[in-house]
């Protein structure tokens, strides 16, 4: 719900101190502090020129700040919330202030069980079915092509560009030639995939469903980091959870997709799911390939190889929908 006195400048935050070694992967700076009413908060400062993810997504200023100002994050459906309670711009920087959720954040290696996955899918279905249509979102093309080799070479860091190019090279070595050619072509130009997805029913998607962006507040789901929010088929969110979401769970990707079908019922869109899985791999497949060859632990490498094989076996279904 809206904060009675939202923090709209640094004057509203006391005891501000920067996280040591915990800045966002994009280059954003993270701070902890306390509001004048005693509420513990986390503040995130991002600068377009210094925030690589913001540049890759085409946002000059923070999308999360735009969504908060638009009131979207205060109109989320029952059971879904955002910890964002304020923000402002300062010269070329955007500030976001969030309630400090502490150790309620699920984290990257969370062992999701079947009951928790059902709750997650239900809360996401509520978001997707909410009818929210923000004026400010990430374009679907930018969301899919965020790590396009040409885009990363132009707007990313040298290290990221090297990793992306290297990952797609490994993918070409590991995947069947026809699949590799199609996926790498879409990574460079996702226009056919974007058009196919835009032809399906859409909803408001968070865009970056991952353990680091999830927290349970009682029975409700708090979603952090709305910087990749997008209007897309609801399956888009589900597909983007799969590359890393279940890596510490006994559940498989197929288990989760079966549960997603059950949660959505007659609204389930098989075509959108297949296209969204392809979009998720175009977005992150380079990293899935690197995981196969760079993980040192043999047991973990086998897990990553099996995960990679699941994606490669699935991709031709969606590729065939584009022809």
Automatic annotation (TrEMBL):
<dbReference type="GO" id="GO:0016740">
    <property type="term" value="F:transferase activity"/>
</dbReference>
<dbReference type="Pfam" id="PF01636">
    <property type="entry name" value="APH"/>
</dbReference>
<feature type="domain" description="Aminoglycoside phosphotransferase">
    <location>
        <begin position="94"/>
        <end position="261"/>
    </location>
</feature>
<dbReference type="InterPro" id="IPR002575">
    <property type="entry name" value="Aminoglycoside_PTrfase"/>
</dbReference>
<protein>
    <submittedName>
        <fullName>Putative Aminoglycoside phosphotransferase</fullName>
    </submittedName>
</protein>
<keyword id="KW-0808">Transferase</keyword>
<dbReference type="InterPro" id="IPR011009">
    <property type="entry name" value="Kinase-like_dom_sf"/>
</dbReference>
């Amino acid at each position: 719900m809206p904060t009675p006195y939202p923090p709209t400048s640094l004057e509203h935050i006391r005891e501000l101190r920067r996280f040591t070694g915990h800045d966002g992967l994009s280059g954003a700076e993270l701070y902890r502090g306390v509001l004048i009413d005693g509420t513990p908060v986390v503040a995130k400062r991002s600068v377009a020129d210094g925030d690589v993810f913001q540049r890759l997504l085409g946002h000059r200023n923070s999308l999360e700040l735009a969504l908060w100002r638009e009131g979207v994050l205060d109109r989320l459906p029952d059971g879904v919330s955002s910890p964002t309670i304020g923000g402002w711009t300062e010269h070329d920087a955007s500030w976001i202030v969030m309630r400090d959720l502490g150790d309620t954040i699920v984290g990257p290696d969370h062992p999701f069980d079947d009951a928790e996955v059902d709750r997650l899918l239900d809360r996401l279905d509520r978001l997707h079915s909410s009818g929210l249509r923000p004026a400010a979102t990430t374009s679907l093309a930018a969301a899919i092509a965020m790590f396009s080799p040409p885009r990363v070479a132009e707007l990313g860091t040298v290290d990221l560009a090297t990793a992306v190019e290297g990952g797609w090279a490994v993918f070409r070595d590991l995947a069947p030639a026809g699949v590799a050619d199609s996926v790498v072509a879409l990574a460079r130009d996702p226009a056919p995939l974007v058009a196919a997805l835009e032809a399906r029913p859409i909803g408001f998607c968070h865009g970056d469903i991952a353990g680091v962006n999830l927290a349970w507040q009682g029975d409700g789901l708090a979603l952090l980091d709305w910087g990749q929010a997008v209007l897309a088929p609801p399956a888009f969110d589900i597909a983007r959870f799969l590359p890393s979401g279940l890596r510490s769970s006994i559940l498989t990707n197929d288990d989760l997709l079966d549960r997603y079908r059950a949660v959505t019922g007659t609204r389930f869109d098989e075509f959108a799911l297949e296209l969204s899985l392809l979009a998720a791999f175009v977005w992150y497949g380079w990293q899935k390939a690197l995981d196969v060859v760079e993980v040192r632990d043999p047991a973990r490498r086998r897990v990553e190889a099996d995960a990679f094989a699941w994606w490669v076996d699935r991709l031709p279904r969606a590729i065939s929908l584009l022809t």
